[in-house]
Write a structure and sequence with these properties.
The structure holds two protein chains of two kinds.
Chain A (H helix, E strand, L loop, with lengths): L5 E8 L2 E8 L4 H7 L19 E4 L2 E4 L12 E3 L13 H8 L9 H13 L6 H7 L11 H19 L1
Parallel strand pairs in A: 1-5
Antiparallel strand pairs in A: 1-2, 3-4, 3-5
Helix pairs in contact in A: 2-5
Chain B lengths: L3 E6 L3 H10 L4 E3 L5 H6 L6 E5 L9 E3 L5 E4 L4 H6 L1 H6 L1 H7 L5 H6 L2 H6 L8 H5 L4 E6 L2 E6 H4 E3 L2 E2 L6 E7 L8 E7 L10 E9 L5 E10 L6 E2 L1 H7 L2 E2 L2 H14 L10 H22 L6
Helix pairs in contact in B: 10-11, 11-12
Classes of the chains: A alpha+beta, B alpha+beta.
Chain lengths: 165, 294
């Protein structure tokens, strides 16, 4: 290691433009947690298998643990924190996870919710099998997937109804 | 924090080639879903990287004037699975791309990376091989086209010269038009798994759907690199669509495959699967082509 290499980047984080000078060796997960306090971004496996670190980049889910922080320059990131409304209330999908008992230890939950948020924003009606496929990059080791799929399905139906109304 | 010494970010294909010449020790990183995992495992500790992530001109699927399908090397698996041209002209490739990992991995993983890392389990490789795909490699002296069959040199070794980067994968019109394919991945889980073995078959039938004019088969995890099995292809060329022909196809495949025992599965188990994959793959491909195995 000769000298630490830094890069100045700007990107949009949960709707706000931010700038940072980052060590090029950092993963996006590291940067979001350490520089910006986005601790909903969980570091589970750190090899892109468990999905606990899932964030939306330009609206699409990525494992932030295997995404270099330098690549985020000029892009838009949404973390779980970004789902909160102006008054600090949680969103419908988060409430559905609580209502459907889709949370046990909670470590996988932010990642699951970001994957779910992506499919909910598509505005389509997914079958349960399709929901499972969309969530197949996220692992829960406590409680299983039944209630998670229930929570997503319920929120999907609710949002579709609101859209039609 | 990844154990990386220095990252060179390419801003154009020419810049990437220049960086390749200036920094021969550096490895190319496109999406990172293999490279970053290797770095984290300590296998590439202290490495230099050339990032081609920003080369958006290498993303996407287009059709050249002569009907050649051009897949940019940085095209993600998600893109491939949803691309209208792929769906129309070579849907089996989209299905193979959709079998990779999970949604997040399919969003970051690229078809060029999947090919250039030279691993036998690459989900898209068997389908590309079975369509006689060409690698487009750009270096300091220009562009070189290499058939994918020749691009693979050995396990994790490909014919990418020190000054080159892969810029596209090409499939010529005569290699997809009239062909119908099917990809089968055999793994322990439906998602987030690496193939125990995989097989991609495509066929072209006669007009009355009773004769196989041509059949091609590519395997993953049947040898050190993705491979075709010529004995299977020869065994069914110009043969009637029948159960006997399907059997001959599977028997031919087993003459050529050379799987090994690994912690995922034994050689014997893989051979069992590979015969069955050939059978099912051909039967389904024939059905998609409008024929029926009686």
């Amino acid at each position: 290691m000769s000298q630490i290499q830094y890069k100045a980047i700007t990107f949009t984080l949960n709707g706000k433009e931010v700038a940072a000078s980052i060590d090029v060796r950092e993963s996006l997960a590291d940067m979001l947690r350490n520089e910006f306090g986005m601790t909903s971004v969980k570091k589970g496996c750190e090899v892109g298998e468990c999905g606990a670190c899932t964030v939306l980049i330009n609206g699409v889910p990525y494992d932030s643990c295997i995404f270099l922080a330098i690549w985020i320059d000029g892009k838009e990131v949404t973390t779980l924190e970004g789902l909160m409304d102006e008054e600090g209330n949680i969103s419908d999908i988060q409430q559905a996870f609580i209502d459907e008992a889709a949370v046990q230890c909670g470590f996988c939950t932010p990642g699951f919710i970001m994957s779910a948020e992506h499919l909910l924003r598509e505005g389509k009606r997914y079958s349960r099998d399709e929901i499972r496929k969309e969530l197949s990059g996220n692992m829960c080791r406590c409680t299983g997937y039944q209630n998670i799929v229930n929570a997503v399905e319920k929120t999907m139906e609710k949002r579709l109804e609101e859209k039609e109304a | 924090m990844y154990d990386i010494n220095h990252i060179y970010e390419a801003t154009s294909v020419e810049h990437a080639v220049q960086l390749r010449v200036e920094q021969p020790q550096a490895k190319i990183i496109s999406g990172g879903s293999d490279i970053l995992i290797s770095i984290r495992a300590g296998e590439m500790a202290g490495c230099d990287l050339i990032s081609i992530f920003r080369l958006d001109e290498l993303r996407g699927v287009t059709l050249d004037e002569d009907g050649t399908l051009r897949i940019g090397a940085l095209t993600s698996f998600t893109h491939l699975a949803n691309d209208p041209l792929i769906k129309e002209l070579i849907p089996v490739l989209g299905e193979a791309a959709d079998a990779v990992g999970g949604p997040q991995v399919r969003n970051i993983g690229t078809i060029g990376g999947n090919t250039c890392n030279g691993v036998t389990s690459a989900d898209t490789a068997s389908t590309l091989l079975a369509h006689d795909a060409l690698m487009e490699l750009t270096g300091k002296d220009g562009v070189r086209l290499v058939p994918l069959t020749e691009f693979y040199l050995g396990a994790k070794k490909v014919d990418l010269r020190p000054d080159e980067i892969a810029t596209a994968i090409l499939i010529r019109r005569e290699n997809y038009q009239g062909y119908f394919g099917h990809y089968i991945k055999y793994a322990m889980r439906n998602a987030m798994d690496i193939a125990t073995s995989a097989c991609s078959v495509n066929v072209k039938l006669s007009e009355d759907k009773k004769t196989i004019l041509d059949a091609r088969i590519g395997y993953g995890v049947a040898g050190p690199v993705p491979m075709r099995t010529p004995s299977a292809e020869q065994a069914v060329k110009d043969k009637p669509v029948s159960a006997d022909t399907v059997e001959a196809f599977a028997a031919g495949a087993l003459e050529d495959v050379n799987p090994r025992t690994s912690w995922r599965a034994t050689k014997e188990f893989r051979l069992q699967i590979q015969g069955e994959l050939a059978r099912r793959g051909l039967t389904e491909a024939i059905q998609r082509a409008g024929g029926k195995v009686s």
